[in-house]
């Protein structure tokens, strides 16, 4: 395995959105492959024709794109490969590793009923397993795998350890239904083998499937992949994640304004750890991620941790990249797009907005001063700071700023000197200035707002605030 290229895959069923648990499974596969110069493949398991929809496939692809998880090669459709799956079932039949079973549903149910009465295993034992083909009737049949009757199947799992299952606990699995269509269990094994998958990293709800799937690998003489069955994600209360815990779909997190880098970082830490490291980049995650760091216990979703990490990623992000992601967020959330002037202003202001914002809505709230148009309409709290005295002070201040060189150093000097002349501290001026410039009480620093807005816009807002309310 050491000389072989690492190949992982993500194989969702297109029956709905990309679940956050699926997003994490995809991330683990992506990190493992990317960190080792391997391939990360995508297969859509669309064999359930009644529930699979093109819209769901599109939602999964969009969710992966937002998370930044790029895959290699074409997206593979499992349904399109049904003839190949059937071919393998017939190969097994020809090799004597599978057999035709003519038992009807009624016969199988009668067998189980009798087994229940006699308090023995209800696993169906087909009378056709060793039947002479000459005795085969001209009737519908399924193809079943011949599971060894004795011994045990050992799943050597990199997360769960060795899991042993007695072969007497496994039935002769159906490979091909009586209408000739392959079952999911067969399709998965054939696809993984044909795609060259070396490591199967998936939810531990598939652990029991591994034992049955190993029967096909062994019968075909194929290499069994490295198994890594990861625990599921639970809600903050320790129960299986459900709608009552909040957002389940990856796209909902985009629409709530979480940055993709923060989401990747958080999901990577959800059930996997690298020492005490909490905040890390994609490059670090790819270099560090390994199967040994995955815990056995279910991970708990923690929105406070998610927000904390997202805040750190917003602060560390490149301004232009952040603006690009905010534009995509507004579209995903169904909010109005930014005009060009607003986008330009937001970009200029990014340095004083991104330090303490944990989500894009928080950042945009801080950016109100540069996104709002003049005249500024103060909210109720800010309006209280603009009483008659404050307006008079703003009117006196405006001329002193006319000829300022508009650097932070000069603006600080002018405002501090002006406060002294008014017999007060600058802190007392800050409230009316925030109200005049932003119409809010919680804003970036007054000096940052003045620098971002520029001389003309600052003076226009101060003049309007000073004049407003006067006869």
UniProtKB/TrEMBL annotation:
Enzyme Commission number(s) of this protein: 6.1.1.17
GO BP: glutamyl-tRNA aminoacylation
GO CC terms of this entry: cytosol
Binding site for ATP: 243
Sequence motif 'HIGH' region, residues: 12-22
Annotated localization: Cytoplasm
Domain Glutamyl/glutaminyl-tRNA synthetase class Ib catalytic: 6-307
Renumbered ranges of motif 'KMSKS' region: 240-244
Pfam families: Anticodon_2, tRNA-synt_1c
Enzyme class: ligase
Domain Aminoacyl-tRNA synthetase class I anticodon-binding: residue ranges: 339-465
PROSITE patterns: AA_TRNA_LIGASE_I
Key words, A-Z: Aminoacyl-tRNA synthetase, ATP-binding, Cytoplasm, Ligase, Nucleotide-binding, Protein biosynthesis
Matches recorded under InterPro entries: aa-tRNA-synth_I_cd-bd (IPR045462), aa-tRNA-synth_I_codon-bd_sub2 (IPR020751), aa-tRNA-synth_I_CS (IPR001412), aa_tRNA-synth_I_cd-bd_sf (IPR008925), Glu-tRNA-ligase_bac/mito (IPR004527), Glu/Gln-tRNA-synth (IPR000924), Glu/Gln-tRNA-synth_Ib_cat-dom (IPR020058), GluQ/Sye (IPR049940)
Coiled-coil boundaries: none
Keyword Repeat: no
CDD domains found in the cross-reference section: GluRS_core
Role noted for this protein: Catalyzes the attachment of glutamate to tRNA(Glu) in a two-step reaction: glutamate is first activated by ATP to form Glu-AMP and then transferred to the acceptor end of tRNA(Glu).
Subunit structure comment from the entry: Monomer.
Record family assignment: Belongs to the class-I aminoacyl-tRNA synthetase family. Glutamate--tRNA ligase type 1 subfamily.
Protein's name in the database: Glutamate--tRNA ligase
Organism taxonomic ancestry: Bacteria, Pseudomonadati, Pseudomonadota, Alphaproteobacteria, Rhodobacterales
């Amino acid at each position: 395995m050491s000389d072989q290229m690492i190949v992982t895959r993500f194989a969702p069923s297109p029956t709905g959105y990309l679940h956050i648990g699926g997003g994490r499974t995809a991330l683990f596969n992506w990190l493992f492959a990317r960190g080792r110069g391997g391939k990360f493949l995508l297969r859509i398991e669309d064999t359930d024709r009644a529930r699979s929809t093109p819209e769901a496939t599109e939602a999964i692809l969009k969710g992966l794109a937002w998370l930044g998880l790029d895959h290699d090669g074409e997206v593979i459709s499992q349904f399109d490969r049904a003839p190949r799956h059937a071919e393998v079932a017939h190969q097994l039949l020809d090799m004597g590793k599978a057999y035709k079973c003519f038992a009807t549903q009624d016969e199988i149910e009668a067998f189980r009923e009798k087994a229940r009465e006699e308090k023995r295993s209800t696993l169906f034992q087909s009378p056709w397993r060793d039947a002479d083909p000459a005795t085969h009737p001209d009737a519908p049949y399924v193809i079943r795998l011949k599971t060894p009757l004795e011994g045990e199947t050992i799943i050597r799992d990199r997360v769960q350890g060795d899991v042993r299952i007695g072969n007497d606990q496994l039935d002769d699995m159906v490979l091909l239904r009586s209408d000739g269509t392959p079952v999911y269990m067969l399709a998965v094994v054939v696809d993984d083998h044909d795609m060259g998958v070396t490591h199967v990293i998936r939810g531990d709800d598939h652990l029991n499937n591994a034992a049955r799937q190993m029967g096909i690998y062994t019968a075909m003489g194929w290499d069994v992949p490295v198994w890594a069955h990861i625990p599921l994600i639970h809600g903050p209360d320790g129960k299986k994640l459900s709608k009552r815990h909040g957002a389940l779909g990856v796209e909902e997190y985009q629409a709530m304004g979480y940055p993709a880098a923060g989401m990747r970082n958080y999901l990577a830490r959800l059930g996997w750890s690298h020492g005490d490291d909490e905040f890390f980049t994609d490059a670090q995650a790819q270099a560090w991620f390994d199967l040994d760091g995955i815990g056995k216990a279910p991970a708990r979703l923690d929105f406070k941790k998610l927000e904390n990490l997202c805040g750190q990623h917003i602060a560390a992000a490149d301004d232009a990249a952040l603006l690009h992601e905010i534009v995509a967020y507004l579209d995903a959330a169904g909010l109005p797009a930014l005009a060009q002037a607003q986008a330009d202003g937001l970009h200029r202001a990014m340095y004083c907005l991104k330090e303490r914002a944990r989500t894009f809505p928080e950042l945009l709230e801080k950016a109100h001063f540069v996104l709002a148009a003049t005249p500024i309409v103060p909210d109720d709290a800010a309006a209280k700071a603009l009483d008659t005295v404050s307006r008079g002070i703003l009117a006196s201040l405006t001329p002193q700023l006319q000829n300022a060189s508009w650097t932070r150093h000069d603006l600080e000097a002018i405002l501090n000197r002006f406060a002294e002349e008014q017999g007060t501290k600058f802190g007392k001026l800050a409230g009316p200035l925030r109200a005049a410039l932003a119409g809010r009480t919680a804003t970036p620093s007054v000096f940052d707002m003045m620098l971002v807005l520029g001389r003309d816009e600052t003076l226009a807002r101060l003049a309007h605030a000073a004049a407003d309310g006067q006869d």
